[in-house]
Amino acid sequence: MVPHQSVFKDESKLDINYVPRRLPHREKEHRLMMEFFNFLLKFPERMTQRVIITGEVGTGKTALAQRFGADITLEANKRGVKFRYVHVNCRECRGKLFLILQHAVSVFRPNFPKRGYSAEEALETLMQSLDEEDAHMVLALDEFDTLIEQEGSEAVYKLTRLQEMRPGKPQRISLVSIIRDLKSTEKLDASARSTLQRNVIRLYKYSSDQLTDILNERVAMAFERSTVPEDVVDLVAELAVSESGNARFAIELLWRAGKYADAEDLGSVAPECVRKAVSSIIPTIRRSELSSLGFHEKLFLLGAARVFKGNQRTYASLSEIEEGYAVVCEEFDEQPHSHTQLWKYVQLFSALGILKAEVAIAGTRGRSTRVSLPSVPAYELEKELSAALEKRWE
Amino acid sequence: MEIEEVFSSKPRMKILRLVARLGALNVSDIARRISLNYSTTNQHLKLLEAEGILQQRVYGRVRMYRFNDRSPKAIAVQNLIETWEQNK
Q1: How confident is the model at residue A362 (pLDDT cuts 50, 70, 90)?
Q2: Which of A110-114, A277-281, A298-302, A333-337 has the lowest mean pLDDT?
Q3: Check whether domain A206-281 has CATH 1.10.8.60, yes or no
Q4: Quick check: A111 and B64 CB within 8 A?
Q5: pTM value > 0.80
Q6: Which comes out higher in pLDDT, residue A53 or A312?
Q7: C-alpha A80 chain-centroid distance
Q8: Is A117 close to B61, i.e. CB distance below 8 A?
């Protein structure tokens, strides 16, 4: 058997933990972060910094913090400042301050015992270790809301008021808190909140174009040349926009689509691979939904599924789908419904999230409708519909 | 203490090899790793500290031992262990 040619060049570039050198459409926020810590690089012992990064899922909060962490460490080392960036996921530490601090301590003292002391002692150990090494650290607390929920104001207060307990000594720990919704901080008392919220960096949802840029960069890094067509990238971006502009979702979808392409030895990623990938992530269509459809609605959808299955394209015109429907009607010995009725079907399936219709202005005369099957694999839809229609004939 | 007395003990040599391999460790951890009781391990550690080979750092209730970076003896012992391990 001839070994197949994978579409991937380097899959690791699509890994959830991979942080690219450049974060498209987050350059401004990255510069701002570096600016916030600029003074600290010049006079590390005189001040520390506190920053909150906030934004929806997949808006690049973790990636921004980690990119910043790597860059600031590099910059500090160039200036001869001993600097460590420590990224801790509070959820993984079950929101316990003790476990978070223990993780931070283990960076400096890898064999430090895992139990037998309190969170306060862990904090003292961390400060002492930093003093001994004359080092400074940025402690990034990802999913910070978990810590607030678990331990409330007390833990935040301890972290933010560290320096007040050691007046005259060098400042050591800066904080970057990563939080999805700032509302979570409302649970904190006023003093804890005020010490925390000095600088807030808000990340807004990525637009379709921005996601396309992000995906194109990853495609260039992770895939072989010409294995991911432009319309496939557009389709993935569109799907991610409907998932609240989630870049992580988009990248995972791209990876899965590549996997489906490899599994079928296609040599390139087809729109159908994306549909299979998305249905493996979110079960978009349920059998019960299909069985509740009317007879001609099923025929119409079967026609559409066959069009997408046959042409391997992302989009089809409404007239192409109408033709597909007419063929299905002939097969079932049925008279096709009118164009107006079919347009209503398109609207119904758009509302159900099965089809997506966009009106495209074609030249100067009239308008045409572009239809896509964004998230259900055409072959699966055809199989389900054929089974449902066969039942009717039995 | 004479050199032969310091190095004539098997537990002390085990402690030195362990600290050379893993870096700073606390007393209980060392005792567990060399399968010796806490009190005896502690005595060996105190002796090695008194000889200036190891140094103790106290973090609250936790005592960690590591090589004394400023001691020529500690550097010599580390070099000996490293050379020994590399040419086994």
Answers
A1: low
A2: A277-281
A3: yes
A4: yes
A5: no
A6: A53
A7: 36
A8: yes
At A52, give phi and psi (nearest 5°): -110, 130
* Domain A27-203 superfamily per CATH: P-loop containing nucleotide triphosphate hydrolases (3.40.50.300)
Which residues of B fall within a CB distance of 8 Å from A121?
59-62
pLDDT score at A311: 79
Distance CA A196, CA A305 (A): 53
- Domain A287-393 in CATH 3.40.50.970? The answer is no
Select from A233, A159, A223 the least CA-distant residue to A191. Answer: A159
| Closest partner CB to A109 (pick from B24, B28, B60) | B24
- Using CA atoms of A37, A43, A48, A54 in order, give the dihedral in degrees to the nearest 10: 0
Cβ atoms within 10 Å, residue A56: 15
| pLDDT, mean of residues A364-389 | 81
Mean pLDDT of A89-105: 91
**Per-residue model confidence as pLDDT tens digits over A238-253:** 988 887 788 988 998 9
Using an 8 Å Cβ cutoff, are A109 and A125 in contact? yes
> Which chain A positions have a beta carbon within 8 Å of B57's beta carbon?
132
**CATH number of the domain located at residue range(s) B3-79 in this protein:** 1.10.10.10
Spell out which residues of chain B touch residue A124, defining contact as CB-CB under 8 Å: 59-60
Q: A78: which residues sit within 8 A by CB, 6+ positions away? A: none
Give the distance from residue B31's alpha carbon to the nearest chain A alpha carbon, in angstroms: 13
What's residue A202's pLDDT?
A: 95
| Cβ-defined contact of A117 to B24 (cutoff 8 Å) | no
B10 to chain A nearest CA, in Å?
23
Which of chain A's residues have a Cβ under 8 Å away from the Cβ of B18?
none
Whether B28 sits inside 8 A of A129 (CB atoms) is no
Instruction: Flag whether residue B21 sits within 8 Å of chain A, measured between CB atoms.
Output: no
Residue-wise pLDDT for B48-60, tens only, equals 999 999 999 999 8
Q: Which residue of B has its CA nearest to A120?
A: B60
